[in-house]
Amino acid sequence: MPSITTGRGAFGDFVYLITSIFGAYFQYLMGLMAKPPLKSLDREIILITGAGNGIGREMCLYLGETCPKVTLVCWDIMKQSNDETVNTLQTMGVKAYGYNIDISNRERVSECAAQVREDVGDVTVIINNAGVLHKTSSFLNLTPTDIERTFNVNTISQCWILREFLPNMVERNSGHVITICSTTGHMGVANFSLYSASKCAQRGLIESISLEMESKNVHINFTTVFPGFINTQLIANTNMSSSLPMPMRTLEPKEVAKEIIEAFRRNEEHVYLPRGNSRLLVLINNLLLPKGGNVLRNLYTFESTEKQ
User: Fold this and answer.
1) Superfamily of domain covering 40-304
2) Which of 107, 82, 189, 201 is nearest to 150 (CA)?
3) Is the pTM of this model over 0.85?
4) Residues classed as catalytic
C-alpha cells in the first residue's frame, strides 16, 4: 500500500488542521457579515438542465432579467415547455438556444454537446438542475426501473455532462459548475431512500472533482445548493408534516432561483435553503450521529399522497 506524507510531521499536521478549521470558520463568518459583490456574467455561455419548468425555468428567466448579455443553453426532456422557456427569453432580447434531450442517455449528451459547441460555442457555466423523484415510498416498494432511472438522471447524467464540458474549462483555467443537490444529500430520510442516495452520490462526486481541480491549481468555481422542500412538480405527490412550532417552510421556485443565481455570482461554495432551517437540520444530523436521523424522523414526516 502506498504511503502518504505531507512533510510537516505529526505535530505540523495537527497545527495545520486546527488553523485550517479556524480559518474556514472565520471566512464563513466574514461572508455572513459582508457579502462579496455580484460578479458580471456578460458574455458567459450558461448551460441549464431542466430548463423547461420549475427552478430551471425560473433561473433562466431571472438570468434573462438581471444579466441580459448572457447566452443561455436550455436542455430539457420536455420539448414543449423548454421551447416556451426559450421563446420567452428570446422575446426578452436574450440569446437562448433550446435542445430536447434525455440527459441520462450518454450518446445523446455527447451529440447534443457537440451541437452546442457548433451552434453557440464553449459552455463556460454549467447548472446541473434536472432531477427526478419517482415516488415517496418505502425502499421495498420501489421498482428496478425507479432505481435505475433515479440514479441515471440525478447522478450519472452529471458524469456525462461534466465529461463533455469540464475539459475545456480546465484548458481555459476558468469556469463555474453549479449543482442543485438537496438536504437529503447530507442525511438519509425515511421514504426518500432512493432520492437521498442519488443526492449523496451527487454531493460526493462534486466534492471530489472540486478537490481534484484545487489540487491541480485549476481555477474552476463550484457551487453546490442544498434546498429543502420546493413547490415544484417533483414533490407534487408528497406531503410533509412537522411537529415543530416553526417547521421548515416550503420554498417557491422563484425565490430559490434568485438565491441560487446570486450565490453563484458571489462564488459561494455551499448554499443551504432556506438559509436558517436547512443548515440547522444538517447540523443536527451531524452532531447527533448515529441517532441524528432518528431525531429528525420524529420532527419531520414525509408521506405519499398517491393512491397505491
Assistant:
1) NAD(P)-binding Rossmann-like Domain (3.40.50.720)
2) 201
3) no
4) 195
